[in-house]
Known about the structure:
The chain is mainly beta. 8% of the residues lie in helices and 54% in strands.
Amino acid sequence: xxxxxxxxxxxxxxxxxxxxxxxxxxxxxxxxxxxxxxxxxxxxxxxxxxxxxxxxxxxxxxxxxxxxxxxxxxxxxxxxxxxxxxxxxxxxxxxxxxxxxxxxxxxxxxx
Length: 111
């Protein structure tokens, strides 16, 4: 789940750490814990569906119309594949996530 494209960040690329607890055989579903140092991105299209539960700190998600939605530790958010979303965290964030990549599922069904 690490985001490695430096062009999407405002400022420095954050330090990211991930522990994957589960990934199915074809890689369409992944469950894990992800932590990062503070960072901000411009809104961009999500390549996956993701449910996240924040364990530490807070994050502000900005939608395609510029509306900001803040989620704090103990809160959860869902970002569907294709949604346009920006991310801003001012402190170190830790989240539990479940990611589903429909494109992986579709490719597996074709084989």
